[in-house]
Design brief:
Elements: H1 13-24, H2 33-36, H3 45-51, H4 54-59, E1 64-67, E2 89-96, E3 106-113, H5 117-124, H6 132-140, E4 143-147, E5 152-156, E6 160-162, H7 176-188, H8 198-216, H9 230-240, E7 244-245, E8 248-249, H10 253-256, E9 259-260, E10 291-292, E11 301-304, E12 307-315, E13 324-333, E14 336-344, E15 351-357, E16 360-361, E17 372-375, H11 383-387, E18 391-400, E19 407-417, E20 422-432, E21 460-462, E22 465-470
Parallel strand pairs: 1-4, 20-22
Antiparallel strand pairs: 2-3, 4-5, 5-6, 7-8, 9-10, 11-18, 12-13, 13-22, 14-15, 14-18, 15-16, 17-20, 18-19, 19-20, 21-22
Helix pairs in contact: 6-8, 7-8
Protein backbone atom coordinates (compact mmCIF):
# COMPACT_ATOMS: atom_id res chain seq x y z
CA UNK A 1 0.00 0.00 0.00
CA UNK A 2 2.73 2.46 0.96
CA UNK A 3 4.80 1.67 -2.14
CA UNK A 4 1.82 2.04 -4.49
CA UNK A 5 0.49 5.16 -2.79
CA UNK A 6 -3.10 5.92 -1.83
CA UNK A 7 -5.56 8.77 -2.12
CA UNK A 8 -5.57 11.28 0.77
CA UNK A 9 -9.34 10.80 0.92
CA UNK A 10 -8.72 7.21 2.03
CA UNK A 11 -7.09 8.43 5.23
CA UNK A 12 -9.03 8.69 8.50
CA UNK A 13 -10.49 12.16 9.04
CA UNK A 14 -8.03 13.23 11.74
CA UNK A 15 -5.09 12.29 9.50
CA UNK A 16 -6.54 14.25 6.58
CA UNK A 17 -7.00 17.32 8.74
CA UNK A 18 -3.51 17.05 10.25
CA UNK A 19 -2.08 16.91 6.72
CA UNK A 20 -4.10 20.00 5.82
CA UNK A 21 -2.66 21.85 8.83
CA UNK A 22 0.86 20.86 7.80
CA UNK A 23 0.27 22.25 4.31
CA UNK A 24 -1.09 25.51 5.76
CA UNK A 25 2.11 25.77 7.80
CA UNK A 26 4.21 25.25 4.68
CA UNK A 27 5.55 21.89 5.87
CA UNK A 28 6.09 19.17 3.26
CA UNK A 29 6.47 16.18 5.56
CA UNK A 30 4.32 14.83 8.36
CA UNK A 31 4.94 11.90 10.69
CA UNK A 32 1.92 9.81 11.70
CA UNK A 33 2.79 6.75 13.78
CA UNK A 34 0.04 4.60 12.32
CA UNK A 35 1.36 5.24 8.79
CA UNK A 36 5.09 5.34 9.46
CA UNK A 37 5.46 2.27 11.67
CA UNK A 38 4.43 -1.27 10.71
CA UNK A 39 2.21 -2.40 13.58
CA UNK A 40 1.98 -6.13 12.93
CA UNK A 41 1.17 -7.99 16.14
CA UNK A 42 2.90 -11.09 14.75
CA UNK A 43 6.08 -9.22 13.80
CA UNK A 44 7.05 -6.36 16.12
CA UNK A 45 10.55 -5.90 14.71
CA UNK A 46 9.75 -2.64 12.91
CA UNK A 47 7.76 -1.37 15.88
CA UNK A 48 10.65 -2.04 18.28
CA UNK A 49 13.13 -0.42 15.87
CA UNK A 50 11.10 2.76 15.41
CA UNK A 51 10.12 3.00 19.08
CA UNK A 52 13.81 3.06 19.99
CA UNK A 53 14.45 6.21 17.91
CA UNK A 54 11.24 8.16 18.50
CA UNK A 55 13.13 10.63 20.70
CA UNK A 56 14.76 11.93 17.51
CA UNK A 57 11.42 12.27 15.74
CA UNK A 58 9.91 14.33 18.55
CA UNK A 59 12.93 16.45 19.41
CA UNK A 60 13.76 17.32 15.79
CA UNK A 61 10.20 18.05 14.67
CA UNK A 62 8.95 21.53 13.83
CA UNK A 63 5.60 21.29 15.59
CA UNK A 64 3.41 18.65 17.20
CA UNK A 65 -0.19 18.80 15.90
CA UNK A 66 -2.45 17.78 18.77
CA UNK A 67 -6.04 16.60 18.32
CA UNK A 68 -6.81 17.25 21.96
CA UNK A 69 -10.30 15.79 22.30
CA UNK A 70 -10.90 13.39 19.40
CA UNK A 71 -11.70 9.89 20.72
CA UNK A 72 -10.07 8.26 17.67
CA UNK A 73 -8.78 9.04 14.18
CA UNK A 74 -12.22 8.80 12.58
CA UNK A 75 -13.36 12.05 14.23
CA UNK A 76 -12.65 15.66 13.27
CA UNK A 77 -10.21 17.71 15.30
CA UNK A 78 -11.79 20.94 14.04
CA UNK A 79 -14.38 22.21 16.50
CA UNK A 80 -17.77 23.51 15.39
CA UNK A 81 -18.28 26.78 17.20
CA UNK A 82 -19.67 30.29 17.12
CA UNK A 83 -16.56 32.55 17.12
CA UNK A 84 -18.53 35.30 18.83
CA UNK A 85 -18.82 33.17 21.96
CA UNK A 86 -15.03 33.01 22.19
CA UNK A 87 -14.48 36.76 22.49
CA UNK A 88 -12.95 37.57 25.87
CA UNK A 89 -15.03 39.46 28.41
CA UNK A 90 -14.08 43.07 29.06
CA UNK A 91 -14.78 46.00 31.32
CA UNK A 92 -14.94 49.65 30.29
CA UNK A 93 -13.27 52.45 32.21
CA UNK A 94 -13.44 56.20 31.75
CA UNK A 95 -10.05 57.72 31.01
CA UNK A 96 -9.60 61.43 31.82
CA UNK A 97 -6.81 63.30 30.05
CA UNK A 98 -4.50 65.42 32.17
CA UNK A 99 -2.58 67.24 29.45
CA UNK A 100 -3.38 70.91 28.76
CA UNK A 101 -4.33 70.20 25.14
CA UNK A 102 -6.89 67.55 26.13
CA UNK A 103 -7.94 68.85 29.54
CA UNK A 104 -11.55 68.02 30.31
CA UNK A 105 -11.71 65.30 27.66
CA UNK A 106 -12.83 61.82 28.73
CA UNK A 107 -12.40 58.65 26.69
CA UNK A 108 -13.44 55.08 27.36
CA UNK A 109 -10.87 52.30 27.48
CA UNK A 110 -11.48 48.56 27.57
CA UNK A 111 -9.74 46.05 29.83
CA UNK A 112 -9.99 42.48 28.55
CA UNK A 113 -10.31 39.54 30.94
CA UNK A 114 -8.39 36.44 29.85
CA UNK A 115 -9.33 33.13 31.47
CA UNK A 116 -6.39 30.83 32.12
CA UNK A 117 -8.79 28.07 33.12
CA UNK A 118 -9.50 27.48 29.42
CA UNK A 119 -5.91 26.33 28.91
CA UNK A 120 -6.20 23.96 31.84
CA UNK A 121 -9.51 22.50 30.68
CA UNK A 122 -8.63 22.14 27.00
CA UNK A 123 -4.93 21.28 27.22
CA UNK A 124 -3.74 20.16 30.64
CA UNK A 125 -6.63 17.75 31.28
CA UNK A 126 -7.63 17.12 27.67
CA UNK A 127 -8.42 13.58 26.57
CA UNK A 128 -5.16 13.31 24.61
CA UNK A 129 -3.07 14.16 27.66
CA UNK A 130 -4.44 11.20 29.62
CA UNK A 131 -2.63 8.85 27.23
CA UNK A 132 0.74 7.57 28.36
CA UNK A 133 2.33 7.56 24.90
CA UNK A 134 1.54 11.26 24.46
CA UNK A 135 3.59 12.43 27.46
CA UNK A 136 6.92 12.13 25.65
CA UNK A 137 5.48 13.73 22.51
CA UNK A 138 4.33 16.75 24.47
CA UNK A 139 7.46 17.24 26.54
CA UNK A 140 10.00 16.60 23.81
CA UNK A 141 8.44 18.37 20.83
CA UNK A 142 9.70 21.96 20.62
CA UNK A 143 6.20 23.26 19.84
CA UNK A 144 2.64 22.07 20.20
CA UNK A 145 -0.48 23.28 18.40
CA UNK A 146 -3.50 22.01 20.35
CA UNK A 147 -6.91 21.80 18.68
CA UNK A 148 -9.25 22.00 21.65
CA UNK A 149 -13.02 21.83 21.95
CA UNK A 150 -13.43 25.58 21.55
CA UNK A 151 -10.21 27.11 20.28
CA UNK A 152 -6.57 26.71 19.31
CA UNK A 153 -3.82 26.70 21.93
CA UNK A 154 -0.08 27.11 21.49
CA UNK A 155 2.62 25.66 23.71
CA UNK A 156 6.38 25.93 23.38
CA UNK A 157 9.42 26.15 25.63
CA UNK A 158 9.03 29.88 26.11
CA UNK A 159 5.31 30.52 26.39
CA UNK A 160 1.71 29.36 26.14
CA UNK A 161 -1.00 31.21 24.21
CA UNK A 162 -4.55 30.86 22.93
CA UNK A 163 -6.73 32.34 20.22
CA UNK A 164 -8.49 34.43 22.85
CA UNK A 165 -5.20 35.29 24.51
CA UNK A 166 -2.46 35.46 21.88
CA UNK A 167 -0.11 37.66 23.88
CA UNK A 168 1.55 34.98 25.98
CA UNK A 169 -0.07 35.96 29.24
CA UNK A 170 -1.29 32.55 30.37
CA UNK A 171 0.45 32.68 33.74
CA UNK A 172 -2.27 32.30 36.34
CA UNK A 173 -2.64 28.52 36.34
CA UNK A 174 -1.16 27.19 39.55
CA UNK A 175 1.76 24.95 38.75
CA UNK A 176 1.71 25.30 34.96
CA UNK A 177 4.98 27.19 34.62
CA UNK A 178 6.55 25.35 37.52
CA UNK A 179 5.66 21.99 36.04
CA UNK A 180 6.56 22.73 32.44
CA UNK A 181 9.61 25.01 32.45
CA UNK A 182 11.67 22.99 34.98
CA UNK A 183 11.04 19.90 32.85
CA UNK A 184 12.40 21.62 29.77
CA UNK A 185 15.38 22.75 31.83
CA UNK A 186 15.85 19.14 32.86
CA UNK A 187 15.84 17.98 29.25
CA UNK A 188 17.91 20.72 27.69
CA UNK A 189 20.41 22.14 30.17
CA UNK A 190 23.42 20.13 31.18
CA UNK A 191 24.02 22.11 34.34
CA UNK A 192 20.68 20.96 35.76
CA UNK A 193 21.85 17.37 35.60
CA UNK A 194 25.18 17.56 37.36
CA UNK A 195 24.01 16.78 40.89
CA UNK A 196 21.33 14.73 42.64
CA UNK A 197 19.90 17.65 44.57
CA UNK A 198 16.26 18.73 44.60
CA UNK A 199 16.51 20.83 41.43
CA UNK A 200 17.51 17.75 39.51
CA UNK A 201 15.76 15.13 41.60
CA UNK A 202 12.24 16.37 42.21
CA UNK A 203 11.67 19.44 40.06
CA UNK A 204 13.40 17.96 37.04
CA UNK A 205 13.62 14.26 36.37
CA UNK A 206 10.84 13.15 38.69
CA UNK A 207 8.48 15.78 37.33
CA UNK A 208 8.66 13.77 34.13
CA UNK A 209 8.21 10.46 35.93
CA UNK A 210 5.26 11.82 37.89
CA UNK A 211 3.55 13.22 34.78
CA UNK A 212 4.03 9.94 32.93
CA UNK A 213 2.99 7.66 35.79
CA UNK A 214 -0.34 9.49 36.09
CA UNK A 215 -1.17 8.33 32.56
CA UNK A 216 0.59 4.98 32.33
CA UNK A 217 -2.17 3.21 34.25
CA UNK A 218 -4.19 3.48 31.03
CA UNK A 219 -1.66 1.67 28.81
CA UNK A 220 -3.34 -0.96 26.64
CA UNK A 221 -0.25 -3.14 26.98
CA UNK A 222 1.52 -2.89 30.36
CA UNK A 223 4.65 -4.28 28.71
CA UNK A 224 4.98 -0.86 27.02
CA UNK A 225 5.50 0.86 30.40
CA UNK A 226 9.18 1.72 29.86
CA UNK A 227 9.04 1.76 26.06
CA UNK A 228 6.47 4.57 26.06
CA UNK A 229 8.81 6.63 28.25
CA UNK A 230 12.06 5.62 26.56
CA UNK A 231 12.25 8.66 24.25
CA UNK A 232 12.52 10.95 27.27
CA UNK A 233 15.00 8.61 28.95
CA UNK A 234 17.23 8.51 25.86
CA UNK A 235 17.22 12.27 25.47
CA UNK A 236 17.94 12.82 29.15
CA UNK A 237 20.76 10.25 28.98
CA UNK A 238 22.34 11.96 25.97
CA UNK A 239 22.08 15.49 27.38
CA UNK A 240 23.44 14.62 30.81
CA UNK A 241 25.69 11.71 29.77
CA UNK A 242 23.75 9.66 32.30
CA UNK A 243 23.27 5.89 32.31
CA UNK A 244 19.62 4.87 32.67
CA UNK A 245 18.81 1.91 34.93
CA UNK A 246 15.23 0.57 34.84
CA UNK A 247 13.89 4.07 34.20
CA UNK A 248 16.17 5.76 36.77
CA UNK A 249 19.52 7.57 36.79
CA UNK A 250 22.60 5.51 37.64
CA UNK A 251 24.47 8.49 39.06
CA UNK A 252 21.58 9.20 41.43
CA UNK A 253 20.29 5.68 41.90
CA UNK A 254 20.53 5.77 45.69
CA UNK A 255 18.22 8.79 45.68
CA UNK A 256 15.98 7.61 42.85
CA UNK A 257 15.16 4.41 44.74
CA UNK A 258 13.05 6.51 47.13
CA UNK A 259 10.03 7.04 44.87
CA UNK A 260 6.67 6.48 46.50
CA UNK A 261 3.05 5.66 45.70
CA UNK A 262 0.87 8.32 47.36
CA UNK A 263 -1.62 7.05 49.91
CA UNK A 264 -5.06 6.62 48.38
CA UNK A 265 -8.20 6.60 50.52
CA UNK A 266 -9.87 3.20 50.33
CA UNK A 267 -7.41 1.98 47.68
CA UNK A 268 -8.05 -1.74 47.14
CA UNK A 269 -6.92 -2.25 43.54
CA UNK A 270 -3.56 -4.04 43.28
CA UNK A 271 -0.72 -1.73 42.35
CA UNK A 272 1.50 -4.36 40.81
CA UNK A 273 1.05 -5.73 37.32
CA UNK A 274 -0.03 -9.30 36.62
CA UNK A 275 3.02 -9.73 34.37
CA UNK A 276 6.63 -8.77 34.99
CA UNK A 277 7.40 -5.18 33.96
CA UNK A 278 10.41 -4.12 36.04
CA UNK A 279 12.24 -4.95 39.30
CA UNK A 280 10.37 -3.98 42.48
CA UNK A 281 12.90 -1.20 43.14
CA UNK A 282 11.93 0.61 39.93
CA UNK A 283 8.97 3.00 39.77
CA UNK A 284 7.98 1.22 36.56
CA UNK A 285 7.00 -1.88 38.55
CA UNK A 286 3.76 -0.32 39.83
CA UNK A 287 0.72 0.76 37.83
CA UNK A 288 -0.18 3.74 40.01
CA UNK A 289 1.11 7.31 40.02
CA UNK A 290 4.47 7.74 41.74
CA UNK A 291 5.97 10.85 43.30
CA UNK A 292 9.22 11.82 44.98
CA UNK A 293 9.22 13.04 48.58
CA UNK A 294 9.87 16.78 48.40
CA UNK A 295 10.81 17.81 51.96
CA UNK A 296 14.42 18.01 50.85
CA UNK A 297 15.15 21.50 49.53
CA UNK A 298 18.01 23.56 48.21
CA UNK A 299 18.79 24.67 51.78
CA UNK A 300 18.88 21.16 53.23
CA UNK A 301 21.91 18.99 53.87
CA UNK A 302 21.45 15.54 52.34
CA UNK A 303 23.32 12.38 53.24
CA UNK A 304 22.83 9.03 51.53
CA UNK A 305 22.88 6.08 53.93
CA UNK A 306 22.99 3.35 51.27
CA UNK A 307 25.28 2.47 48.40
CA UNK A 308 24.40 0.65 45.17
CA UNK A 309 27.16 -1.92 44.70
CA UNK A 310 25.93 -3.22 41.36
CA UNK A 311 22.99 -4.31 39.27
CA UNK A 312 22.06 -6.60 36.42
CA UNK A 313 19.12 -6.28 34.02
CA UNK A 314 17.88 -8.56 31.26
CA UNK A 315 16.39 -6.47 28.45
CA UNK A 316 13.83 -7.64 25.88
CA UNK A 317 15.77 -5.91 23.06
CA UNK A 318 19.10 -4.11 22.76
CA UNK A 319 17.40 -0.92 23.93
CA UNK A 320 18.55 -0.36 27.53
CA UNK A 321 15.79 2.20 28.15
CA UNK A 322 13.05 -0.19 27.04
CA UNK A 323 11.31 -3.33 28.26
CA UNK A 324 12.92 -5.55 30.91
CA UNK A 325 12.62 -9.31 31.49
CA UNK A 326 14.27 -9.46 34.90
CA UNK A 327 17.05 -8.14 37.06
CA UNK A 328 18.50 -7.42 40.47
CA UNK A 329 20.25 -4.67 42.38
CA UNK A 330 22.84 -5.14 45.12
CA UNK A 331 22.46 -2.58 47.90
CA UNK A 332 24.61 -1.96 50.97
CA UNK A 333 23.30 -0.37 54.15
CA UNK A 334 22.13 -1.03 57.70
CA UNK A 335 19.31 -3.58 57.55
CA UNK A 336 16.84 -3.56 60.45
CA UNK A 337 13.99 -5.89 61.29
CA UNK A 338 10.55 -4.36 60.86
CA UNK A 339 7.05 -5.01 62.09
CA UNK A 340 4.17 -3.30 60.33
CA UNK A 341 0.71 -2.75 61.82
CA UNK A 342 -2.36 -1.31 60.16
CA UNK A 343 -3.81 1.75 61.84
CA UNK A 344 -6.44 4.34 61.02
CA UNK A 345 -6.41 8.11 61.05
CA UNK A 346 -9.67 9.13 62.67
CA UNK A 347 -9.67 12.45 60.82
CA UNK A 348 -9.81 10.86 57.35
CA UNK A 349 -10.39 7.66 55.41
CA UNK A 350 -6.68 7.11 54.84
CA UNK A 351 -4.99 4.03 56.18
CA UNK A 352 -2.10 4.71 58.49
CA UNK A 353 0.66 2.35 59.46
CA UNK A 354 2.42 1.85 62.75
CA UNK A 355 5.96 0.52 62.70
CA UNK A 356 8.22 -1.24 65.12
CA UNK A 357 11.88 -1.15 64.15
CA UNK A 358 14.11 -3.62 65.96
CA UNK A 359 11.47 -4.09 68.62
CA UNK A 360 10.77 -0.39 69.23
CA UNK A 361 7.13 0.60 68.72
CA UNK A 362 6.69 4.23 67.70
CA UNK A 363 2.98 4.53 68.41
CA UNK A 364 1.10 3.91 71.63
CA UNK A 365 -1.14 5.50 74.27
CA UNK A 366 -0.57 9.23 74.37
CA UNK A 367 1.45 9.27 71.14
CA UNK A 368 0.32 11.56 68.36
CA UNK A 369 3.15 10.89 65.91
CA UNK A 370 2.69 8.70 62.85
CA UNK A 371 5.28 7.47 60.45
CA UNK A 372 4.71 8.70 56.94
CA UNK A 373 4.44 5.26 55.35
CA UNK A 374 3.68 4.65 51.68
CA UNK A 375 3.32 1.00 50.68
CA UNK A 376 3.68 0.18 47.01
CA UNK A 377 0.68 -2.14 47.24
CA UNK A 378 -1.32 -1.70 50.48
CA UNK A 379 -3.85 -4.36 49.47
CA UNK A 380 -1.03 -6.91 49.30
CA UNK A 381 0.19 -6.53 52.88
CA UNK A 382 -0.84 -9.20 55.37
CA UNK A 383 -0.16 -9.56 59.06
CA UNK A 384 1.40 -12.93 58.34
CA UNK A 385 4.48 -11.22 56.91
CA UNK A 386 5.00 -9.43 60.22
CA UNK A 387 4.30 -12.55 62.28
CA UNK A 388 6.82 -14.56 60.25
CA UNK A 389 9.56 -11.91 60.58
CA UNK A 390 9.71 -11.38 56.81
CA UNK A 391 9.80 -7.57 56.86
CA UNK A 392 12.87 -5.35 57.08
CA UNK A 393 13.81 -1.74 56.51
CA UNK A 394 16.98 0.08 55.55
CA UNK A 395 17.67 3.76 56.38
CA UNK A 396 18.42 5.22 52.95
CA UNK A 397 18.66 8.99 53.23
CA UNK A 398 19.04 11.59 55.94
CA UNK A 399 18.50 15.28 55.50
CA UNK A 400 18.28 18.22 57.85
CA UNK A 401 17.44 21.89 57.56
CA UNK A 402 18.66 24.90 59.46
CA UNK A 403 15.23 25.40 61.06
CA UNK A 404 13.61 21.97 60.66
CA UNK A 405 14.35 18.75 62.49
CA UNK A 406 16.20 15.89 60.86
CA UNK A 407 14.30 13.45 58.65
CA UNK A 408 15.30 9.92 57.68
CA UNK A 409 13.83 8.05 54.71
CA UNK A 410 13.64 4.26 54.80
CA UNK A 411 13.28 1.57 52.18
CA UNK A 412 10.76 -1.07 53.31
CA UNK A 413 11.63 -4.60 52.21
CA UNK A 414 10.27 -8.15 52.31
CA UNK A 415 12.62 -11.11 52.31
CA UNK A 416 12.16 -13.46 49.35
CA UNK A 417 15.01 -15.89 49.94
CA UNK A 418 16.85 -15.63 53.29
CA UNK A 419 19.55 -18.00 52.10
CA UNK A 420 20.65 -15.75 49.24
CA UNK A 421 19.88 -12.45 50.96
CA UNK A 422 17.24 -11.62 48.35
CA UNK A 423 14.46 -9.12 48.99
CA UNK A 424 11.87 -7.14 47.13
CA UNK A 425 10.78 -3.60 47.83
CA UNK A 426 7.33 -3.08 49.42
CA UNK A 427 7.40 0.68 50.06
CA UNK A 428 9.10 3.63 51.75
CA UNK A 429 8.68 5.52 55.00
CA UNK A 430 10.05 8.72 56.44
CA UNK A 431 10.21 9.83 60.04
CA UNK A 432 11.15 13.13 61.60
CA UNK A 433 13.68 12.00 64.14
CA UNK A 434 13.72 15.29 66.02
CA UNK A 435 10.11 15.00 67.16
CA UNK A 436 10.89 12.45 69.87
CA UNK A 437 14.55 11.58 70.07
CA UNK A 438 14.00 8.75 72.54
CA UNK A 439 11.76 6.81 70.16
CA UNK A 440 14.17 5.83 67.42
CA UNK A 441 17.73 7.13 67.81
CA UNK A 442 19.89 7.04 64.71
CA UNK A 443 22.39 4.77 66.45
CA UNK A 444 21.62 1.04 66.65
CA UNK A 445 19.42 -0.05 69.53
CA UNK A 446 20.11 -3.15 71.58
CA UNK A 447 16.54 -4.48 71.96
CA UNK A 448 16.22 -8.15 71.12
CA UNK A 449 14.84 -9.18 67.73
CA UNK A 450 14.32 -12.47 65.95
CA UNK A 451 17.67 -11.97 64.21
CA UNK A 452 20.98 -10.80 65.54
CA UNK A 453 22.90 -8.23 63.51
CA UNK A 454 24.95 -10.90 61.80
CA UNK A 455 22.03 -13.31 61.38
CA UNK A 456 19.87 -10.90 59.40
CA UNK A 457 19.46 -12.32 55.87
CA UNK A 458 22.09 -10.80 53.60
CA UNK A 459 24.75 -11.58 51.04
CA UNK A 460 27.52 -10.11 53.17
CA UNK A 461 27.82 -8.47 56.59
CA UNK A 462 30.86 -6.27 57.08
CA UNK A 463 31.69 -3.32 59.34
CA UNK A 464 28.10 -3.07 60.57
CA UNK A 465 26.56 -2.96 57.08
CA UNK A 466 24.56 -5.53 55.14
CA UNK A 467 24.72 -6.19 51.41
CA UNK A 468 21.50 -7.55 49.94
CA UNK A 469 19.92 -8.30 46.58
CA UNK A 470 16.64 -6.63 45.64
CA UNK A 471 14.67 -8.08 42.75
Amino acid sequence: MLLDGFAPSDLPQTFQEASSVARRLGVRYIWIDALCIFQDKDDLSDWHKEASIMHKVYAQSLCNIVAAETPDSSHSMFASRDPATMLPAFTEHAFHWSTIAHRGRADVTRKYLFMDKNFNAEVEVARINTRAWVVQERFMSPRGLHFGNQQLFWECRETEAAETNPYSSITGIMGLKRKYEPVQDCLDKKDSGQECGPARGYSGFYRLVEAYSKCSKNLSFPSDKLIAFSAILKHFSAVHQEEIVAGMRRGCLEDDLLWRVPNQAGETEPSHYDTYIAPSWSWASVRNCVIKHSDSSQSSIDCSLVHVEGYQLDYVTEDTTGAIRGGWLRLNGSLKQLKLFRGHDGSSDLFTWELAVEGVRTKGPGWHIHWDVCLDNPAEHSGQDTDNDMLFCMPAKEYSHATVMKTIEYLLLKVVNPGTGTFRRIGVANWNEGRDLDVLPANDRSESTAFGKREIPCVEYKDGSHSIYII
